[in-house]
Automatic annotation (TrEMBL), chain A:
Identification of the protein by name: Nitrite/sulfite reductase
EC numbers for this chain: 1.8.7.1
Transmembrane segments: none
Organism in which the protein naturally occurs: Denitrificimonas halotolerans
Keyword vocabulary terms for this entry: 4Fe-4S, Heme, Iron, Iron-sulfur, Metal-binding, Oxidoreductase
Top-level taxon in the UniProt lineage: Bacteria
InterPro entries (UniProt xref): NIR_SIR_4Fe-4S, NiRdtase/SiRdtase_haem-b_fer, Nit/Sulf_reduc_fer-like_dom_sf, NO2/SO3_Rdtase_4Fe4S_dom, NO2/SO3_Rdtase_4Fe4S_sf
Pfam families in the cross-refs: NIR_SIR (PF01077), NIR_SIR_ferr (PF03460)
Top-tier EC class: oxidoreductase
TrEMBL record, chain B:
Name of protein: DUF934 domain-containing protein
Lineage: Bacteria, Pseudomonadati, Pseudomonadota, Gammaproteobacteria, Pseudomonadales
InterPro entries, sorted: UCP030820
Length: 552, 165
């Protein structure tokens, strides 16, 4: 992973001092609430229902065991001994005291971490595939490009007061596990016919109030021009994006208003002025960054198919876990393991300090001392020897990470919701729990198979409900919490947005509604169909009739 | 005279900012006036002989509208209706980097300490701090961050062209 040099370290240390002084000025009354707001937000600090909420940056999800131990320490020292993994692969604390935040930042800086631009109207954490560097379907490792974007976007002076937040995702695989089509900018690393590396550039995708799939404005951007082209996009957005209405301020509204073609022309005009200037990327810099993302010291191993199959026979639980939580690796004899943070009864994405310490130890023992947060709110150990999977599984069970539900109905993406978040219209965590309780039979959720169920507590869509195969959105109806259900969303390649099923439901009805939707799928599916396939074939009507008919 | 920050120092301001509804005669009666863009556009010929002269743009006004006239101005002031508005961060860079404007680029309006670091990097060299705040205090922000990754007006090379091995 990327290791700071003196320059990088200086930047985070200066930031700690700067934020310490901003906090002091706030408490001294030299900064008003309103004036402190953008400053603390750009440092990931929300003031929420119960307490401030601090979002710590985890660039493209990658953490060392040392950093994970520091996170565990921070949750113990300054919070209630747990943390939450967000859908932007960051780590969130729900209960820090405002006056402690400068000290938390100082602790983070000591392990090359920070909270810069994890919130506010600026360029946020760049995300990518949780299997970057190890995926079998990878064409280009996206991590060096994410790091280049991280450095370019960190305190970019021109884009420090954008109309609204701005999210970039990079994908380098055949499949798209980074949801690039629903980002403000989605970058897909590609090679042209001459074998040169470049990026296909999508803009104006996003969820929130106006969900929309991004439009391609450049089929092939040669890599040396990546940053100048991003700068051109951001400049057009910064100058001409709407600032009169918060709900129309994302870049997607500007792209839609101008049309993607006209927006592309505007970007091109701007780009022609700055193209080939000093921010043209150099091979030396790409090499410098890339050397931090070379393969670890893999052993020469062979795949363990037979031995693992034998273990599967003896231990059905292991077989189950392996079928859902273990992913093929590019190196023979290795596998990527997903630790499920979706155990029933625990808020999706929550981890305790003890669990964080355990993850750090497991990363040291089994995975070259690194782990990754995923945007589905789980944690990945990316480089595990297949011959150690069984022993790792036993340890994961002890620590509560072995729920074999990755990609299944109970692997729910869920925002903090009304229990924690000021913006939320409704709670989301109790809904996730009620659904997990309803579907408590592993045999049954295995039989249901691949299914993304995503829950957001409000229109801001932090739980990505639009791209859930089943999406649930908390809405406020005359002061009461209701839930709108949508079907057919998908965040992968050729992303689609879910269609609203019909009128919203009361909280208590949601498990029944989900059961009925699953019944329809089970009755209509062909042997090879996942939920999304059946939905696409038979359409929403059958689902709708079942759910609403029985309400009468 | 009100105090402003100019070239990293607090000094007394010599200029007078004319409001958006100012008329031609107001300019003629003012020493060192900064005139609204629309007034300049309406009375260019009468205003051109006046030296020194400044002009100011509101947040929605674009620098391209002034691009051919830059030599007439000693000051170009860019207005921030709110401290959260970053449109003129881009305008300042364009003025300096694209149009090679060498006069004063001044931030006016809702200008507070914590914007200054970014503004300076974009090419501003003068700041009229909101009147309820202290310019001496605001000055401190210019040196809070000592390293920057990006190329901008103050540093035309990105860090990756400056890093020593």
């Amino acid at each position: 992973m990327y290791i700071y040099d003196n320059y990088d370290q200086q930047i985070v240390e200066d930031r700690v001092k700067q934020f310490r002084d901003q906090t002091r000025r706030y408490f001294a009354g030299e900064l008003s609430e309103d004036e402190f707001l953008p400053l603390r937000l750009q440092n990931g600090l929300y003031v929420q229902r119960q307490a401030p909420m601090l979002r710590i940056a985890v660039p493209y999800g990658l953490m060392s065991s040392k950093q994970i131990r520091m996170l565990a320490h921070i949750t113990r020292k300054y919070d209630k001994s747990y943390a939450h993994i967000t859908t932007r692969t960051n780590v969130q604390l729900n209960w820090p005291a405002l006056e402690d935040v400068p000290d938390i930042l100082a602790d983070l800086a000591s392990v090359q971490m920070h909270a810069i631009q994890t919130s506010g109207n600026c360029i946020r954490n760049t995300t990518t595939d949780q299997f970057a560097g190890v995926a079998r379907d990878e064409l280009v490792d996206p991590r060096p490009w994410c790091e280049l974007i991280r450095q370019w976007s960190t305190f970019h002076p021109e884009f420090a007061r954008l109309p609204r937040k701005f999210k970039i995702a990079v994908n380098g695989c055949t499949n798209d596990r980074a949801a690039t089509e629903v980002h403000d900018i989605g970058l897909e690393a590609v090679h042209n016919d001459a074998g040169e590396l470049g990026f296909r550039v999508l803009v104006g995708g996003g969820l929130g109030r106006t969900p929309i799939v991004g439009s391609c404005i450049n089929e092939f951007l040669p890599w040396p021009h990546l940053l100048s082209y991003l700068e051109a996009i951001l400049r057009v957005y910064n100058r001409f994006g709407r600032r009169d209405n918060k709900f129309k301020a994302r870049i997607k509204i500007l792209v839609k208003a101008l049309s993607p073609e006209v927006f592309a022309e505007r970007v091109n005009e701007e780009w022609l002025h700055i193209k080939d200037g000093p921010i043209t990327l150099t091979q030396e810099e790409v090499d410098r960054i890339s050397q931090h993302f070379t393969d670890p010291d893999y052993l020469i191993l062979e795949d363990q198919d037979e031995a693992l199959a034998k273990l599967d026979e003896q231990h059905p639980g292991f077989a189950r876990w392996r079928s859902r939580n273990v992913t093929a690796h590019k190196k023979p004899g290795y596998a990527a393991v997903t630790l499920s943070l979706k155990k029933t009864g625990i808020a999706p994405g929550d981890v305790t300090d003890k669990q964080l310490d355990a993850i750090a130890d497991l990363a040291d023992t089994y995975s070259f001392s690194e782990a990754r947060n995923t945007h589905e709110q789980n944690i990945v150990l990316a480089d595990v020897e297949q011959s150690k999977l069984f022993e790792l599984w036993q340890q994961l069970r002890e620590h509560g990470f072995a729920t074999p539900n990755i990609g299944l109905l109970t692997d729910i993406i869920c925002c903090p919701g009304g229990d924690f978040c000021n913006l939320a219209n409704a709670k989301s965590i109790p809904i996730a729990e009620a659904i997990q309780n309803r579907f408590d039979s592993l045999d049954y959720i295995f039989d249901i198979g691949d299914l993304d169920l995503n829950i957001s507590g409000c229109m801001n869509a932090c739980g990505h409900h639009h791209v859930g195969n089943i999406g649930i959105l908390g809405v406020d109806k005359k002061g009461a919490e209701f839930y709108q259900v949508s079907l057919g969303g998908n965040s992968g390649r050729a992303a689609t947005l879910g269609k609203i099923l019909g009128p919203a439901f009361a909280q208590d009805d949601i498990p029944d509604v989900i059961s009925k939707l699953i019944d329809v799928y089970i009755e209509h599916r062909t042997p090879e169909e996942h939920f999304i396939d059946t939905f696409q074939r038979i359409g929403i009507k059958t689902f709708k009739e079942r759910v609403y008919a029985s309400n009468n | 005279m009100p105090l402003i920050i100019k070239n990293d120092q607090v000094i007394e301001d010599q200029w007078t900012l004319l409001s958006a509804d100012a008329q031609l005669e107001d300019v003629l009666q003012t020493q060192q006036a900064i005139v609204p863009l629309t007034l300049w556009q309406q009375h260019k010929n009468q205003l051109k002989p006046i030296k020194p002269l400044g002009v100011w743009l509101d947040a929605h006004e674009v620098i391209e509208d002034l691009a051919d006239d830059l030599t007439f101005f000693d000051v170009i002031a860019l207005n921030f209706p709110a401290f959260t508005d970053g449109r003129h961060f881009s305008s300042a860079r364009l003025l300096r980097e694209r149009y090679a404007y060498t006069g004063e680029v001044r931030a006016i309006g809702d200008v507070l300490r914590d914007q200054l670091y970014f503004m300076q990097r974009c090419g501003f060299d003068a700041y009229v701090i909101r009147s309820d705040r202290c310019p001496h205090d605001a000055l401190k922000s210019l040196t809070e961050l000592s390293v920057s990754y990006q190329a901008a007006y103050d540093q035309n090379l990105p860090l990756y062209r400056r890093r020593s091995a």
